């Protein structure tokens, strides 16, 4: 049975890394002693080692030891054998490029289908959708494909940002960008605000956290989905 | 001799379409009676016809007739024969995909090198750089390449946005995104604020408008370049 936490962000403003998710993660990873961390998205260009250390420091609180995927001779095989997996945020183009280059995309998809508990934040959540095409990131690397894990049957927009009411900036709002996406793509897009996450257990998908999420569907007005909603119907 | 206006935005807050550029465009296109408009970026999903009409309405003020690239049997050939060219803003991934699909990327590059006066705004400016990898847009379409016209020997970030001082949003700032780009790419990136444009004549590149631009170079602190600066040295 699939078991995922798909979080909009790793960190809330004024909080510490993954802190707001601690109770949920204690439950999610309760039978795990070790975790493979996928550091490929490298936020701000941080090294794989430094990023993995940051994550290991957090998971020490849960008595879970962390090893970075980059530390294994075969990262793809490491994912097959992993007791638990976390993919951190950063740049989605870089992450997806590395997932394909290392063969991890395929073994990670299988591991998730086989029930390995998974945590994603930001870019690590983006890849849980059908494609990475609703990322907010810059295309700093050309990936071989935009297709991602499809662990949920729609796309995600993490760090969803409402239009700023007093903005004089003429660049597109997030909503305009997603509307453009729907000119060419049919799948729903779920805008997850910071502090929201999806709890996936088998075919059940629950919206967690205190905030509503914003749902965009092709040829329809956007809808607000209340915190706590069951999204199992969404595809 | 190359002759380009590369504008951050088509429209200033509270202004009309291309209005702030009118004096510059009167000079830029002073010997032109007709212009080919490239509508492929389709902002907000607008149709090619509607987008071309918006542009034609503006250029009527300059007594220039406008035809959309999509109206020609061979858009690529139309670019070779064009008296002047304007590429409008919208989604850069969509624009670049269409430029490759139609063969316009190649003929447009040659037309610019041969001195056909060119105007770009937003996505239409992004493609003047070496690659489209510093766009702000969503990857709604998978293009065959990120390589663009290279009409200037660096990359552009239109609609450059300074970090908001009171923001509690944890998504990456524009500066962080460009820093990530420089982990993997060496070319300079020029952040053009709304209201700024580059005036390119042969090898001379001048920064126009009232605002400074922000220059990002690999392994260096960002710099502010004053309005009016000569950027011909930049590569």
UniProtKB/TrEMBL annotation, chains A, B:
<protein>
    <submittedName>
        <fullName>(Alpha)-aspartyl dipeptidase</fullName>
    </submittedName>
</protein>
<dbReference type="InterPro" id="IPR005320">
    <property type="entry name" value="Peptidase_S51"/>
</dbReference>
<keyword id="KW-0645">Protease</keyword>
<dbReference type="InterPro" id="IPR029062">
    <property type="entry name" value="Class_I_gatase-like"/>
</dbReference>
<keyword id="KW-0378">Hydrolase</keyword>
<dbReference type="GO" id="GO:0006508">
    <property type="term" value="P:proteolysis"/>
</dbReference>
<keyword id="KW-0720">Serine protease</keyword>
<comment type="similarity">
    <text>Belongs to the peptidase S51 family.</text>
</comment>
<dbReference type="Pfam" id="PF03575">
    <property type="entry name" value="Peptidase_S51"/>
</dbReference>
<dbReference type="GO" id="GO:0008236">
    <property type="term" value="F:serine-type peptidase activity"/>
</dbReference>
């Amino acid at each position: 049975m699939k078991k995922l936490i798909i979080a909009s962000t790793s960190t809330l403003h004024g909080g510490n890394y993954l802190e707001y998710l601690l109770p949920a993660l204690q439950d999610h990873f309760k039978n795990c002693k070790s975790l493979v961390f996928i550091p490929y998205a490298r936020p701000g260009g941080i090294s794989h080692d430094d990023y993995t250390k940051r994550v290991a420091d957090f998971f020490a609180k849960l008595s879970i030891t962390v090893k970075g995927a980059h530390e294994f001779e075969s990262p793809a095989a490491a994912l097959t054998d992993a007791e638990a997996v976390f993919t951190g945020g950063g740049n989605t183009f870089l992450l997806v490029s590395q997932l394909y280059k290392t063969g991890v995309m395929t073994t990670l998809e299988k591991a998730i289908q086989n029930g390995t508990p998974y945590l994603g934040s930001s870019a690590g959540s983006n890849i849980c959708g059908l494609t990475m095409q609703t990322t907010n990131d810059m295309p700093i690397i050309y990936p071989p494909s935009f297709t991602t894990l499809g662990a949920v049957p729609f796309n995600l927009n993490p760090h969803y940002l409402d239009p700023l009411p007093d903005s004089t900036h003429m660049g597109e709002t997030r909503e305009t960008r997603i509307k453009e996406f729907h000119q060419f793509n049919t799948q729903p897009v779920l805008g997850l605000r910071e502090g929201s996450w999806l709890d996936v257990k088998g075919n059940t998908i629950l919206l967690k956290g205190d905030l509503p999420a914003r749902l965009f569907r092709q040829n329809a007005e956007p809808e607000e989905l209340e915190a706590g909603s069951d999204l199992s119907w969404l595809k």
